[in-house]
Every structure is written in structure tokens, then in C-alpha cells.
Design brief:
The protein is built from five helices and three strands. By secondary structure, it is an alpha+beta fold. It has a three-stranded antiparallel β-sheet. The radius of gyration is 21 Å and the shape is elongated.
Length: 126
């Protein structure tokens, strides 16, 4: 009887841990930035999103690696939080005001995106 109960408990624990492991995702994406201050700001912004367990930005590669619970959030929320902190990602771009308020060493080269161009419709025939 003891072995049956122990076996059932082991199966339950394994099932629960498998469920949690399936919802944890690891994503890597590019985030614009330059220096150690950028690294701290980007990682802090990513970690501020509920459900993010780790965030590590590499200033050489400009790649952020994030581990998060996909059952609690969409990766878009992480991109939005980073953009609100002043750093561009492929999904979301920081506002001009936020970017302009970054310290001088943190001002990275911004790239125009198709979304930027869509605001300029003068002279276009639709």
C-alpha cells in the first residue's frame, strides 16, 4: 500500500513539474543599446514584467535572452516595457521623448522602420 501511495505521489509531482516546464519559454531578440547603463536599464525593464524570471542583455551582440512564463504573458509585453525604458526592439520602438531623455552614452543609432514610414503619406496615391 505504501508503494502505491508513493508511486501516485511521484507521478503527481512529475506531472505538475512537467506542466510548469512547458509554460516556461526562453526567447532571444535584439535590443538597441550601447553601454553598461543600457544593460542595467534593459534588464530592469524586462524583469519588471510579471512572469519574467531572468533577463540578460549582451552589449556586444545586442541580444537579450529572457526566460518567462508564457502562461502569464506574451513576449510583446517584454518588448513594450523595454521600449518604454528607451530602447528599440523589432516589435516596439521607444518614443522620441524617452529616447531623447537617455544619457548621451546610451544614445544608440536608431533605424527607421516601415512603421515610421507609414506615418508619412504625403504625395502617395492610395
Amino acid at each position: 500500500m505504501k508503494t502505491k501511495i508513493l508511486s501516485l505521489m511521484t507521478i503527481m509531482v512529475l506531472s505538475i513539474s512537467t506542466m510548469f516546464a512547458q509554460s516556461e519559454k526562453n526567447e532571444k531578440f535584439e535590443v538597441a543599446g550601447n553601454c553598461g547603463m543600457c544593460k542595467a536599464r534593459i534588464e530592469k525593464a524586462a524583469k519588471s514584467v510579471e512572469g519574467v524570471s531572468t533577463a540578460d542583455w549582451d552589449k556586444e551582440t545586442k541580444i537579450l535572452e529572457v526566460k518567462y512564463d508564457s502562461s502569464k504573458l506574451s513576449i510583446h509585453k517584454v518588448h513594450m516595457a523595454i521600449a518604454k525604458a528607451g530602447h528599440d526592439t523589432k516589435m516596439h520602438k521607444a518614443s522620441k521623448e524617452t529616447y531623447n531623455n537617455l544619457p548621451g552614452c546610451c544614445k544608440y543609432d536608431r533605424v527607421n522602420t516601415e512603421a515610421d514610414d507609414s506615418h508619412h503619406h504625403e504625395g502617395h496615391i492610395h
